[in-house]
């Protein structure tokens, strides 16, 4: 089986993680999965939302949005429509939950980190790229807070890493990291979020349309593919964090 | 292991499916999973949304909402807040996708069926009860359309049934059909939608909070529980459809 | 003169008041006027809105809404439209005012009771059924608060009962408790809210369309009909409160 | 009994009806009931809303709004709040219904007249002043349309006139045309809309707060007061229409 | 060159400034530039918005809006559309900035003045009439506050006056104070706000459409026209403030 | 006089114009004025808005928005707030008007080009960078349409170029292209949009706060600075268009 861009079934697209893409944000990453390009900005602020006050715990949340011309044809802005669409809400909530799965909110103290994931260009896998990039921006924001003395020197708010990948069935074969042409023809589409240590954080599998329901055997194959792909992404996240950050001109 | 209400780990709450609960709707079901009570109304209308026109295919969609006092403490109405929340959107989309997985839209013709799932009382599992009940209301609406000649006598828009159940880990043990007290303390929470013939339509598993990520072994156990529970629910749906509908007073 | 369903001009439809229909709410009633079916939930919370704070008085308010398929053809949800319609606002305000007419807010203390009236099925008279049922739910919520020690043992926040009925001119004859077919053809439509002791709380009479204006004689006839009907409803409310509440399974 | 401004119980405030206050509108009236000042503009447009098309009938509707500083203390604009309040909707609907009670929509043809009633200064009775003034603007707009040949020479879309007044119980006595100080202390408040020929179009009586419910005798007294006051306002409307309209400088 | 209404190129339309047009507002002006008629109400309240608290400085802001039938054809209300349009926001902000240019916020103390500019009739120049009228209302509101002891006897919050005029190129000639027919055909349109002492507060020049860009020489001519016109308006503002205010009937 | 970053008063920041930054858009530019970074995407679609149909003319419009973390501290998203702020509207309208000043809409035919200007990083001058970059994206989109045969080979919809710069008074001295630290302390701030041939399209000068009004001499100096700076930007735009566009990896 050959994929339309020549990849093996289990092969990721080219992944690039550019840290410190912004000057103001406490952490920022331009993450690219092939032509998918997402700007992830981590904003650290002291204090927590009202409903958390006085409990000694922090908060991590996320907002995802697509620029109007990130896609093939222009979409209207949600700000102009006056409301945020269901898909946008759903992905924002997924990113936030995924990151909170590796955050010790006690160790974070009463601080809030917001991850803004803005899709500059979309070619499939924007939510999984967002999670993968946002975690790196989050890690940088936590180090920045530590350097500024906003959290304790020995606090360990990050308990693990998280990365995410999409897997699905294209032309009858299970493949990893679908691009837009693959995604739009896939029968089954699954997004899997895993920790660096190999546990599942989210498993979201969907059969799109009549007759696409999948059996347990296929589900197991997809989970195997996702497990391998997330392990690969975890290595790239660690490699990126190991590099010194280039100074912007 | 004993559950707080005395159920075995794999035991569903009492399930009641009352068809024809409304006089106007083409199909309607009051579905109860224990104290969770959802009113599912299927509205059949000729024609399709603009973006589908002229393609000879129909459309099935769903809207989910909770009454303000369905819960322990009153929530503000989304209509008064002027916007629909992320969770509401997410569940509405899930219900719609689940039903479309067993709909042959060509066989439906250019007709639309909207499933309104209004939660009258919430005690955990409102989305899975909604899917399970909505499918029965959908089946009734299709028979009603057939009886009125709105779809062909021999058309088979329904390719299968769907039912859904939540499974999760409570106090370290995998259990099925969590009620609210269980749901609010569960580490891992998974909603599974399956067809009557035993395939997966949706698998949505979530680890809630740090340290809750789950391994493959546990994931497999949860999928086993869900498979058995959905088979049980499928039988109850069929039994309900087999009964003559009582006439309302 | 014979009405289309065989009732006498002054005859109410079958009225059913089912208390305790919900498990969570402090008071709840499923009220039915014929096929019109409204779920009234009373939510008692300590404290008052900001503008009332520190004055030692309580607050009672109401929100009315129709489920999308309560009617013959489906209506869009107000939450999805992003705004609450004029009719919904108007009826919500009417219900709130009607209940406050029999509430001694001093005796209630700094507590708030919200009455949610959700129309599950509409067949005319939804606002009058709402008021009639909401008052019973309100009475139950006050007793519940008394039992929990949230209001004083001897406090009497309820100064009287309220009930409501629609009256109108159908085919030239004044009739009480119009159902939807009658309501939609009536020239004159009047909603009357009265206390248990026979005084008027609200009188809202409307001539629908050109030539429907009514003279004083007809107005007097309609008020007579409404007075008798409200007295009847008052008896049913008292009878319902006198019954022990059945325990839900 | 003396009213705080020296009026007799049945005495209206000084009423001024200034026609043609605007240059663009097809009909326009600045109506003053004492210090209450409302600008009523009638806009005539060919065509009707979509739901009325092709039926050969016209449409009359109204929108009421208060300027932010029409009142003693400034209120926020509804446009800035992003939603129209319940009271505004309710009054807009009342004005529209009242005018439609004297419109033969067939005779109007497929034309729409919108009445904008903007309260420039509020001192009680803004809705009744609006109705009274709007009818004169409506009459002018119809004559303007006749002059322009937009409706037939001999068409009679106006079947009668309408005027409105508030009546209520202040310090225990029934009085007509309450100003703001009276209105804010009244136990009972009733707005009555009547045709020029003395029939009722709307009767809206409200008991404000506990203990304010009113008996049939008082209701009769209030209706008597309103009948006399509306007859008086009808004369002023006719006198105003009889005057030649001054040309604006 | 003759203008369509016979004015000289540098001639203003008839300007009328009627103070105290409202009874409740701390300052109010009906300002007329020919047929353009704007009601400017100044509302003085103690306290400042949250973000200014505790700094010892006051705040002046403005809200502009057009009545639906101020224009030739009726426009929908922004309150009904649920959002405020770009033009409305832009002009509101311009008026606020213009007034703040002559306010010493320290001398004002922690008080807020809101200027509501509601266009009753529009015939070009509504924003410049608003600024010119609003300044007079602002001056009156400050004197009113001084008289009530809300600001110190010797405080001088007003450092200067402001007035505004539109200038533009009509049929190739630069003219001042464009009315609607001129404005709608002008190539270049410039709004200029100046202080009483002759300095610029705002200069907003716009070339409307292709080929309308203007050169420096023309820009200089327009600025000369505006300077003379603003000086003229300044005199009228001072003359108006010098008059005793007529008592309203 | 030395500027905080060592620039001469008339010196622009480093300007970079990167064409073709996106794969999908018909034209796209990442424009940088120092640390200010704006992504400008031009979307060409056949057809025009309804109000322009059938007139044989095209339409060019723009939408501007800032990413939440483009600024020093995070701002809430306008999509989440449910409304677009006044400043966003104002700048969107400015960009659209500026571009239309050099568009021959007849030559464009019935086609629409939307320019999305999303600020990725803000350090002053975001609106002027947007205009300068958007024009280049617009030029590319027009060439793309020509290449695809969507507009005629010899049509010349672009009549000129436009560029924009901010000028202002910082520490008493007029300077060009203010960065954020300069902008936030400037007394006077002026945005000037000019055509490539040296005419003015927009002049927007504002005195911020009391005492900042500026005299004619200063205004002249600022206009001189802007004229020189726009000429410089025009050269850079032309140089950028002259370069072959690098192929993206």
Automatic annotation (TrEMBL), chains A, B, C, D, E, F:
SUPFAM superfamilies the UniProt entry points to: Ribonuclease PH domain 2-like, Ribosomal protein S5 domain 2-like
Binding site for phosphate: 87, 125-127
GO molecular function, one term: tRNA nucleotidyltransferase activity
Pfam family, one: RNase_PH
Catalytic activity: tRNA(n+1) + phosphate = tRNA(n) + a ribonucleoside 5'-diphosphate
One GO biological process term: rRNA catabolic process
Enzyme class: transferase
EC number per UniProt: 2.7.7.56
Domain (Exoribonuclease phosphorolytic) ranges: 11-141, 161-228
Subunit structure, as described in the record: Homohexameric ring arranged as a trimer of dimers.
Its job: Phosphorolytic 3'-5' exoribonuclease that plays an important role in tRNA 3'-end maturation. Removes nucleotide residues following the 3'-CCA terminus of tRNAs; can also add nucleotides to the ends of RNA molecules by using nucleoside diphosphates as substrates, but this may not be physiologically important. Probably plays a role in initiation of 16S rRNA degradation (leading to ribosome degradation) during starvation.
Protein's name in the database: Ribonuclease PH
Originating organism: Knoellia remsis
Lineage: Bacteria, Bacillati, Actinomycetota, Actinomycetes, Micrococcales
């Amino acid at each position: 089986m050959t994929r339309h861009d020549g990849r093996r079934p289990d092969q990721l697209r080219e992944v690039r993680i550019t840290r410190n893409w912004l000057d103001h944000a406490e952490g920022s990453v331009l993450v690219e999965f092939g032509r998918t390009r997402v700007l992830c900005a981590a904003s650290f602020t002291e204090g927590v939302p009202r409903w958390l006050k006085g409990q000694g715990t922090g908060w991590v949340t996320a907002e995802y949005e697509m620029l109007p011309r990130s896609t093939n044809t222009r979409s209207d802005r949600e700000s102009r429509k006056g409301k945020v669409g269901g898909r946008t809400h759903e992905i924002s909530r997924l990113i936030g939950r995924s990151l909170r799965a590796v955050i010790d909110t006690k160790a974070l103290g009463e601080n809030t980190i917001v991850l803004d994931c803005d899709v500059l260009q979309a070619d499939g896998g924007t939510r999984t790229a967002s999670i993968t990039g946002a975690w790196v921006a989050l890690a940088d924001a936590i180090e920045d807070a530590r350097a500024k003395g906003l959290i304790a020197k020995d606090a360990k708010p990050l308990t693990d890493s998280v990365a995410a990948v999409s897997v699905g069935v294209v032309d009858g074969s299970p493949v990893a990291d679908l691009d837009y042409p693959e995604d739009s023809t896939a029968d089954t589409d699954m997004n899997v979020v895993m920790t660096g240590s190999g546990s599942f954080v989210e498993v979201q599998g969907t059969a799109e349309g009549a007759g696409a329901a999948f059996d347990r055997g296929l589900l197991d194959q997809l989970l195997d593919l996702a497990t391998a792909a997330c392990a690969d992404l975890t290595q790239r996240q660690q490699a990126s964090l190991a590099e010194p950050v280039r100074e912007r001109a």
